[in-house]
Amino acid sequence: MIRAERPIIMAGIGPSEPATVDQLAVLAEKCDAFLVTTLPARGLFHKDPFYLGVAGGFASQVTRRFLADADLIVTFGASISSHNSDQQKLWPNAFVIQVTLNPQLYFQGHKTSNRIIVGDSYRIVSELNQQVDQKNFSNRTAENMRVIEDTPIDGSEFSEYSDGINPLRAVKLLNQKIPNGWQLVNSSGHCSYFFSHMKNRSHEQFLTIREFGAIGNGLSFAMGVAVATSQPTVLLDGDGSFLMHIQELETIRRTGLPVVSCIFNDGGYGSEFHKLRAEGLRDDGANFGHSELHQIARGFDIKGYLVENLQQLEDALSELKKFPVAAVLDIRISPSAVSPVITRSHGKPGIHR
To answer: Which of helix, strand or coil describes residue 305?
Structure first.
């Protein structure tokens, strides 16, 4: 780590205890290294200006740039899966050392690393911090801090859509207006890429769901988080996923849980219809139209907001911030907005058929 010119330290869920996180942040500073996390561990280093965000298929363009340039990556308690490495494409030039209690030289058909150290992350990083001297900074510079802070998540942040809201702009506003003390739950599906890039949110208050890689679990998890923490909880989900358990709005009303469901409504199963369009196939089966989620919420005697522009989103959040109660924000996202995850895997999607 002393000899590496462009090192990066990656953490997974394994070293998520605060004491270990603190030690990893110290090691990164000593070694002039950037920090990155797996998707489930997003936010572990949210206060560090040299935290790049998440690795994997959801990595932002600035994260991809620094990972591609890295000559050393040391992972702690992180699975080097095909998702986390984006099919082994994220760090083509790096020597990879994995610190883990579950050593696997090959995983999901790929070699995970060049070296494996079997051991507890806290003990190993604490020992390293005693042996490593402070390096001069060539990576942790004011210029790179500015690049990390100012570079857009991807090229679509400033795109204009005539058929709905730009999802990245909606996420930016959500991040600005949702109080820091509230819990957030990010479900799965096409929209989860956009929600994963809410900056300066701690790992302890942002739950990322990836069980089975399936949609439909968000509302149930959000209810559990609200019960466990006794805090207002924001569900970040898509319309297709939300509809799978929408009957639980009755449970939320009956129990008085302050679950605010922010639903990106693009009128269908986004991951599916974007892929179908890219393949030149009909997307009828994945498009079911804009369900009137705000009206359905009102039918359950829960606040429902129709959000067709950013001002309406800001107004709804301002009201709920004053009086956090159960609510559904039916946010009409453009069905033309495509995450780069889809674009990279299927090419540029075609038009609605």
So the answer is: strand
Q: What is the DSSP letter of 248?
A: G
Q: Residue 59 is part of which domain span?
A: 7-150
Structurally, how many domains does the chain consist of? 2
Instruction: Give me the DSSP letters along 169-214.
Output: HHHHHHHHHS-TTSEEEE--STTHHHHTT-TT--GGGEEEP-GGG-
pLDDT (tens digit per residue) in 186-231: 999 999 999 999 999 999 999 998 766 789 999 999 999 999 999 9
- Minimal CA–CA distance to 235: which of 283, 203, 192? 192
Is 256 within the bounds of a domain? Answer: yes
Residue 326 token pair? 């159960």
Sequence length of the chain is 353
Q: What is the DSSP string of 140-158?
A: S-HHHHHHHHHS-SSTTTT
Bridge partner residues of 11 (DSSP): 37, 76
- Whose CA is closest to 256, among 293, 304, 223, 229? 223
Interatomic CA distance for residues 319 and 193, integer angstroms: 27
Q: Does residue 137 share a domain with residue 179?
A: no
- The pTM is what? 0.93
Alpha-carbon dihedral of residues 309, 313, 315, 316, nearest 10 degrees? 140
The CA distance from 206 to 321, in Å, is 18
The answer as to whether 144 is a domain residue is yes
Give the integer Cα–Cα distance in Å for 338 and 318: 28
- C-alpha dist (Å) from residue 87 to 32, 35, 78, 83, 228: 27, 20, 15, 6, 36
* Chain centroid offset of residue 74 CA: 21
Q: How far apart are CA 181 and CA 206, in angstroms?
A: 11
How confident is residue 350, by pLDDT bands cut at 50, 70 and 90?
low
